[in-house]
Amino acid sequence: MLMRIASASLFNRRLTVLLTVFSIAVSVFILLGVDHIRNELRASFGRTVSGVDLIVGARTGPTNLLLYSVFRIGNASNNMSWQSFETLSQASEVAWAVPLSLGDSHQGYRVMGTTGGYFEHYQYGGRQPLSFSAGQPFAGEQQAVLGAQVARKLGYEIGDELVISHGTGGVSFSHHDQYPFRVTGILAPTGTPVDQTLHVSLGSIELIHETGGGHADHGHSHEPESITAMLVGLKSRIAVLTFQRKVNQFRDEPLLGIMPGVALSELWQMMGMVERALALIALLVLLASLLGMTTMLLAALREREREIAVLRAIGAHASFVLLLIELEAVLIALAGAVLGYLGLAGLLVLLKDWLSSQYGLYISSLPLSGSTLGYLGLIVGLAALLALLPAILSYRNALSKGLTVRT
Questions:
Q1: Which pLDDT score is estimated for 90?
Q2: Which residues of the chain have pLDDT under 50?
Q3: CA atoms within a 13 Å half-sphere pointing along the CA-CB vector of 295
Q4: Distance of alpha carbon 312 from alpha carbon 401, whole angstroms
Q5: DSSP 403
């Protein structure tokens, strides 16, 4: 009976109720969105690279080096020389070294020059190696290995030809069309920026930039003058700090060596204040919406005196009126919370591919996890708490006025 009366009462004031529900839904959307995206970004960044002891590049900030070399975000302010790469890769502590050269793109996707060792040594997640869903690694110049997302979005298959462009923007007016590339391999999905990358040989990168035109000299070995960064695996983890010091004190040119895990920790420390500020703003927006709901219930008290008098006339106790107001508040909050959750979940499904292709960020669908249920419970609990004021006032009015209705 209580539920039926509460539903009928809310329906009778449906316009005001719908606006309140929408306000709460927007607040829940923001609150859950901030929390989910924060957690997903941490997970996405954390699983991007594993098994790499050091990343070495031209001296810059550790976060900047991490972002452009691993996450393909931003650009290098300077390159390191090929001679420095060879010197460091031949050090006794080094088990393997993989060069990376960035700066070109294809239809908005990054092109990365590297060697065959990249497919052998690069790992992600829990030390999972790269694998091919089709084809094989490049064996020479003008051959390309595509990330899973690139191949799927652009519809490429083994044997197709493509032309890469100068620069990293989505639109380029400088194309290296004199040197078309043939697709030799397509990588299996990894859920990392690897999926949005076209991989070519270092020789190919040097070839297309040597003359800016003319014909390819396939009999010439195209050794690069410089690279963007290098990934380093050491024979012993104990030697990491020693080799990092050697890199940072390198005499031939100013270089920086970073440990991916440490650099990620520094990144999250930088982002911590922003995360807390966003969470606080989301909570304040939610509180404002719930206070708006309380105001609506208070404003409706005078209009509902006759309704309350009728309920008392048919034998309802004064406490029934209190429970009615509380139930209405809970129903409004619950409807807003569910609507906000469904809206966020739907939007994430729609934007999932766009976020991964444009920014290399993998945001999974919103799960109905323990933390999500906790937030929804908190919202309903706050609504019930804030609704106590109009509920108590209704209770007191029901006791004092009984069937007397003001005219």
A1: 95
A2: 171-173, 212-216, 219, 402-403, 405-407
A3: 9
A4: 10
A5: T
Distance CA 146, CA 134 (A): 10
- Pairing state of beta strands 132-135 and 161-162? unpaired
Terminal Cα-to-Cα distance of the chain (whole angstroms)? 29
Structure tokens at 345: 């979940």
Contact yes or no for 50/232 (Cβ under 8 A): no
Rounded to 5 degrees, φ, ψ at 253 are -165, 155
- Across the strands, what pairs with 109? 106
The type of residue at 295 is T
- Predicted pLDDT of residue 43: 77
For the chain, the domains span 2-45+267-399, 54-258
**pLDDT, position 190:** 87
Instruction: Write down the mean pLDDT value for the chain.
Output: 84
- The H-or-E segment that residue 97 falls in is strand 94-106
- Cβ density class 378-405: b for 16+ within 10 Å, e for less: ebbebbbebbeebbebbbebbeeeeeee
pTM of the model: 0.69
Torsion-angle region of residue 108: left (phi > 0), alpha (psi -120 to 50) or beta? left
Alpha carbon distance 196, 310 (integer Å): 66
Residues 383-394: tens digit of each pLDDT: 889 888 887 877
What distances in angstroms separate CA 46 from CA 191, 237, 267, one per listed residue? 11, 19, 11
Cβ contacts of 358 within 8 Å, gap of 6 or more: 108
Structural contact between residues 70 and 360, judged by C-beta atoms closer than 8 angstroms: no
**Residues in Cβ contact with 181 at an 8 Å cutoff, skipping those fewer than 6 apart:** 142, 143, 144, 161, 162, 163, 164, 200, 204
Name beta bridge partners: 197: 110
> For residues 214 and 177, what is the distance between their CA atoms, to the nearest angstrom?
11
Integer Cα distance of 6 and 76 in angstroms: 62
Let me know if 232 is exposed, middle or buried by CB neighbors in 10 A (0-12, 13-18, 19+): buried
Predicted pLDDT of residue 397: 67
> In terms of C-beta density within 10 A (0-12 exposed, 13-18 middle, 19 or more buried), how is residue 162 classed?
middle
134 by Cβ neighbours in 10 Å (0-12 / 13-18 / 19+) ranks as: middle
